[in-house]
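[09:14] KT: can someone run the structure on this one? pasting the chain below
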Amino acid sequence: MDILDLFTQLGIALGLGILVGLQREKTSAEIAGVRTFPLITVFGTMSAWLAQQFGPWILAASILSLAALVVLGNVYLMRTGHSDGGLTSEIAILVMFATGALLAVGPRPVAIAIGGGVAVLLHAKESLHGFANRLEGDDLRAIMRFALIALVILPILPDRPFGPFDVLNLRAIWWMVVLIVGISLGGFILYRFVDRRTGAVLGGIFGGIISSTATTVSYAKLTRRNEQAARLSATVVAIANAVVMIRVLIEIWIVGPALLPVALGPIVIMLIVQILLAAFLVLGRSPEEESLLEPRNPAELRPALVFAALYAVVLVGVAATRHYLGNEGLYAVAVISGLTDVDAITLSTARLAQVGRLELGTAWRLIILATMANLVFKTAIVALLGNRRMLRTVAALSAISIAAGGVLLLLWPA
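[09:31] RB: done, structure tokens below
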């Protein structure tokens, strides 16, 4: 090993140890502080370097020696009555020793990221405790169900194509479920940290993140109980529709980045139209605050399975229609699938476009058409569940948005 490289490793270990040590010093940690942590991290680097030269027993002996010192230090603190009963500093000591060792034997950027992450995590104690205390029972259940969806089910699914046209892949399908549930869950958790009386703007934003269709249903029903809430409800739905376009862009960027440069222009235009319509309603409302409706937990397993099935059906439908009927038949698939859910058609077309099985120009047109169909569906929901005042507003805004989408489909260059 080059001597300069060794000094570089030791210097980085020293810096990371000082960073963590400063944080521990400020929290009045008794067992290790600003001097001890740099020594521990440098000790880890030296032990790993010596283990490469003389055998792995040196690294094992170093870990055992460090663990013995930590135990003796804690015994002394307990006898003198200074122990706080926690294990944070002790675990941090072991992690920083391993970080120092990783600097010598593993990818250096990973070791640096771990060391910096330890410092940030230790410093965020109050914020993390505050976050945990703000979570309610439904929030924790939602997080645990998302863990089931993302960390238990996903890894065990086979990663190979099968089915008609070889477009189905269980792991790829479930990845889409994880993506959609993750986005919705993020909005659901953030909802806990906003004032419930923040009015239509945040109601629409969170509604679009969690589920714009469910938001439309909830606020349409509200107008049946309270006729004066018609403009508020229409405003929330309009903002949620604008957020849907942002959500579509994020999904394309993650699943089909090759499609994004082609789809960006028309989708942003649709987004601007939706924002202007929502702004018209927001500026026209009286300034009194309104309470937000409670959103549903988006991490339930049954809806996840339903979305997975819907995504698979759309994926096969797009591939089969293109094979037998050509691009013209795809527009019927987009309309039908977009009626109840824009995510499935967005993800399926983006994925097919990414792997070269669907033309980029056709893909974004299918997505725009699906969003137009979804606006029709939401207007129908308001007609069935809401009052006439809300229906007039939502129908007018949807008609303008659909007209804008039609102009894009007709005039935007191929």
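[09:33] KT: thanks! The chain has a mean pLDDT of 84.
[09:34] RB: yep, looked fine to me
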